[in-house]
Amino acid sequence: MSALGADPRAPGLMLGEDVQIGRRVSFGAHVVVHDGTRIGDGCVIEDHAVLGKRPRLAPGSSAVGEVNRLELSKDVKVCSGAVVFAGAQVQEGAILGDQCFVRERSRIGPGSVIGRGSVVDNDVLVGARVRVQTNVYLTAGTVVEDDVFVGPGATTTNDDTMGRHGSEAPLRGATLRRACRVGGGAVLTPGVEIGEEAFVAAGAVVTRDVTARAVVVGVPACVVREVPDEDLLERWR
Which domain covers residue 208, as residue numbers? Predict the structure, then answer.
């Protein structure tokens, strides 16, 4: 690993080797940018952010895989204390909130927001215009399609055995289809699919797939009605 070098563009700014910085990029104090990171035009990097961190994995970790450089497209905002790993891709206009944590091989789509203290684990795909609120956990292998809302404190999981399996056993994250909504504190068990425009109530525990436009509540979550036409995303654009 190369040594980091101080840079005069901001107090305490430290840059690794082969870092590319676009035009009109703003840095806060004490930012660290590791080797190979690409920062697009107009990005804002706030105080104490860490960009391009390399993963440190336990022996036998299922997160092993090729890790390339971190790429931030233009006009990305990385807020104070956020950590964004090498191998992640953050697309145009996305916002990564204070103290959030974005792992390797994840992708954040254009215009999406990752809230304060939320975790986007390795190999997570987040589409465009997604709203992930505070303290959300998106586990490895989760897929979040365009225009999804994930409420504060929601949790996805990917391992039914909680670590009691061989290395060959696949982990299964949740799939959140276009424009579905997941309420605060909801828990999605491994491999479940939340259908397009579905609504998961706050605090629900989802143990089976939710069909498109279904409203589910409770522990375990049960269907109680259908999302009405007036609540569909097209009426609110």
Answer: 130-163+171-237
